[in-house]
Amino acid sequence: MSAPPKAPAPARTGYRHVLAVPEFRAVFAAHVLSLLGVVVSEIALSVLVYDLTGSPLMSALAFAVGFLPYALGGTLLAPVADRFPARRVLVVCDLVCAACVAAMVAPGAGVGVLLALRCCVAVVSPVFAGTRMATLADVLGDGDAFVLGRSLIRIVSQSALLIGYGLGGLLLTAVSPRHALLITVGTFLASATLLRFGTRRRPARLRPEREKEGGTLGLLRNRRVLVLLLVFWVPAMFSVVPEALAAPYSDDLGAGSAGLGLLMCALPVGTIAGELFAGARLGRATRERIVLPLLCLAVVPYLGYALSPGLWPSLLLLVLAGACSAYTLGLDQWFVRAVPEESRGRAMTLLSAGLMTIQGVGMAGAGALAEVVGVRAAVGAAGVAGTVCCVALAVACRVTESRDGAARHMTGR
After folding, report:
1. Would the pLDDT of 348 be above 60?
2. 13-204 adopts what CATH topology?
């Protein structure tokens, strides 16, 4: 059975035109529902664990265990994204998450069971995210429309940081944590339904006879792909440092809870603004040209923390740093161009798992460094080390870009 033809990208591509593609609307709506479910479940589970134990540490662990299994799931389960039809993988992942959250609602579920179920959801998450990203290329093609579709997914994810947890907190004033978890079950089931009936069935990307030709290690042996993965991962490790240290920094400034809220919001606001401007106002060629300059500037604003700025200058620095992340739109185009189509699902799964894992490493490292040198010095050090790493990665991109250019030339892209 041959693969159905890809949906043609809109002739004049923009966010509005991407949203006009019916299959993308289904994937996008399913993402919103899944994200809502994750946000509600994280808050409800944290509160539920605290109610059961009275321990702030155990409550925090309910959040932390959501990060830990990403590397495991992304590494061991990455091939699943290409070995089976994408729609089936997405629907099964949603159903597994719904089943795990439904089991959390059981009155007899103890803390150990709750945390184990949370780990199961986290193991599945990178497979779902990677398969969804690869599906966008099937739905929108692997050109400009794909980049804008990915951008919309990221914008929604960043927006969740601004409003999701606040809405989740309000929800828990009206219902118990276990009832809130039932809402999460509903969102996962709704997402599965949208994906099952709103997207077309496509065969598995990886044909059985080609199973031994590449694999995950083969993908990582591709120097261009490895460099691009590092460009996604490494800046993210340094960019989360101010977020990880926002509470002690706000305390140092005497800004209180209001200042803490502003510090937590500034980076996502800059990221959303940068994405929207690059996606709506810049052409495809321009977005690719600004990748390396913005990459080199990605964490430069953090150097300003060495000057002991007040609250408002600090917010400006964070907004600027967030806006520099607009380089990811052009980077998305390079990545989908560099990865063989039959390995696209596992590549996207690795990308998602690595991104979450390295952000957790960055947060932990930030806390450890701040214990020794203080908050401002830790953020400034992240700016120095991060800039050195980003410049080195920019050079590596230049060295490997001939391969990408050759691929573009051969395929007429």
Report:
1. yes
2. Growth Hormone; Chain: A; (1.20.1250)
Q: What is the pTM of this model?
A: 0.83
CB atoms within 10 A of CB 106: 12
Which tens digits make up the pLDDT trace of 35-90? 888 878 877 887 888 788 877 667 666 666 666 677 777 777 888 888 899 999 99
Instruction: Give me the helix-helix angle, 144-159 and 22-53, nearest 10°.
Output: 30
Structural tokens at position 144:
């400009």
**Residue 282: both structure tokens together:** 């810049």
User: Which residues 6+ apart lie within 8 Å of 311 measured at CB?
Assistant: 253, 255, 259, 262, 263
Q: Where are the domains of the chain?
A: 13-204, 214-413
Determine the angle formed by the axes of helices 22-53 and 86-105, rounding to 10 degrees. Answer: 20
Q: How confident is the model at residue 9 (pLDDT cuts 50, 70, 90)?
A: very low
Q: Tell whether the model's pLDDT for residue 411 goes beyond 90.
A: no
Establish whether domains 13-204 and 214-413 are of one fold.
yes
Residue given tokens 């590397």 in the structure block: 71
CB 328 within 8 A of CB 309: no
CATH-assigned architecture of domain 214-413: Up-down Bundle (1.20)
Residue position matching structure tokens 């993308």? 24
Of the ranges 267-276, 323-332, 343-352, which one carries the lowest mean pLDDT score? Answer: 343-352
Query: SS3 sequence, the chain?
Result: CCCCCCCCCCCCCCHHHHHCCHHHHHHHHHHHHHHHHHHHHHHHHHHHHHHHHCCHHHHHHHHHCCCCCHHHHHHHCCCHHHHCCHHHHHHHHHHHHHHHHHHHHCCCCCHHHHHHHHHHHHHHHHHHHHHHHHHHHHHHCCCHHHHHHHHHHHHHHHHHHHHHHHHHHHHCCCCCHHHHHHHHHHHHHHHHHHHHHHCCCCCCCCCHHHCCCCHHHHHHHCHHHHHHHHHHHHHHHHHCHHHHCHHHHHHHHCCHHHHHHHHHHHHHHHHHHHHHHHHHHCCHHHHHHCHHHHHHHCCHHHHHHHHCCCHHHHHHHHHHHHHHCCHHHHHHHHHHHHCCHHHHHHHHHHHHHHHHHHHHHHHHHHHHHHHHHCHHHHHHHHHHHHHHHHHHHHHHHHHHHHHHHHHHHHHCC
What integer pLDDT is reported at residue 64 of this predicted model? 64
- pLDDT of amino acid 247: 83
**If you search the block for the tokens 């399913």, which residue do you land on?**
30
